[in-house]
Amino acid sequence: MTDAAELRTRTEELLAAHPPATTDRAEFLKARFDAGLAWVHYPEGLGGLGAPRSLQAVVDAVLEAADAPDNDPRRIGIGLGMAAPTVLGFGTDEQKRRFLRPLWTGDEVWCQLFSEPGAGSDLAALGTRAVRDETTGDWIVNGQKVWTSSAHSARWAILIARTDPDVPKHRGITYFVCDMTDPGVEVRPLRQITGEAEFNEVFLSDVRIPDAHRLGEVGDGWKVAQTTLMNERVSIGGMSIPREGGMIGTVTKTWRERPELRTHDLHQRLLKLWVEAEVARLTGERLRQQLVAGQPGPEGSGMKLGFARLNQEISGLEVELLGEEGLLYDDWTMRRPELVDFTGRDAGYRYLRSKGNSIEGGTSEVLLNIVAERVLGLPAEPRTDKDVAWKDLAR
Fold first, then answer.
1. Who is most buried in 49, 375, 380, 388, counting CB within 10 A?
2. pLDDT by residue (tens digit) across 21-60?
3. Which of 194, 198, 243 has the alpha carbon at shortest distance from 345?
4. What are the pLDDT digits (tens) for 100-128?
């Protein structure tokens, strides 16, 4: 069993062989992956050493002290937080070797083709079709996806499509890896309330996906997708941040530096949100420790719920604290950013962008149901469509 001392030694050997100051960034990241120090809990040969997940912090601390480059995790968050654990859990050996290394180094960006105009909260109702070409064994995919972050810069996409319309909606779905450079893939920007087009809509027209790019069994896509969704909610709501990190840190900095803005009412609200942000941070730390024992469970939905509510309340407080300044907005230019930067923009951006937190990664309404039924064990809501073939559902 790899322990902390051995990991520290391996990391120091990596730094000695590839000094960050004189080694090309891409070369260093590839060497780190090959040394098993990318994500230590992954198997050997796939960027890890089969070590406990908790020991990743040992590696990260040594590398940070040496000012080693990272893989820009915010830019490739969908790949790291969603695609990678799904490929690891359901991919073939060949798929793992092909996808995981360039995914982790950031050479290949990933996006998620799940939601559709008629299947957002009710994702299992999706209508994008994948039909088998019996001659070649490939799958021909037609449909439309929406709210796709990073589609404009992605090389690959995780995709779920309907392969059998004659069974209930959860059972006729299959999971694929889609090549975003295929000529049948069209990406169109969706301009948001912030002025940016961070999201996209994606049209799939006779996109040919080889069966070798299928993850899991045919018709088993909903099960595979659950791994993706559980990891997504942890990656959104359970990020590791220091005390007063994130948006609460931005507001408290303003509070300390601008005493003329303070009022008693705002003080009471700030204290309340500071405490709630710290509780959420510590809860997230406990959740990450629980991940050492296995895959994330429905508890991640609770973290994502809290993340959305806190971001919206904190950003609202910040706008009120700044008064007239809070009504200003720095730039409405139409852009297609590669990442979301909550702390690098002004208060107006944070206020507007945080409105999407209760929609992206699963709406708060759906997540409340998950927490109620799968965490608290409350009776499930009546559902009349569970045993009805997808083709017979009202649309």
1. 49
2. 999 999 999 999 999 999 999 999 999 999 988 899 999 9
3. 194
4. 999 999 999 999 999 999 888 889 999 99
Residues noted as catalytic: 232
Q: Is 391 helix (H, G, I), strand (E, B) or coil?
A: helix
Q: Distance between CA 302 and CA 99 in Å, rounded? A: 30
Spatial CA neighbour of 59 closest among 24, 109, 13 = 13
Distance (Å, rounded) from C-alpha 90 to C-alpha 112? 16
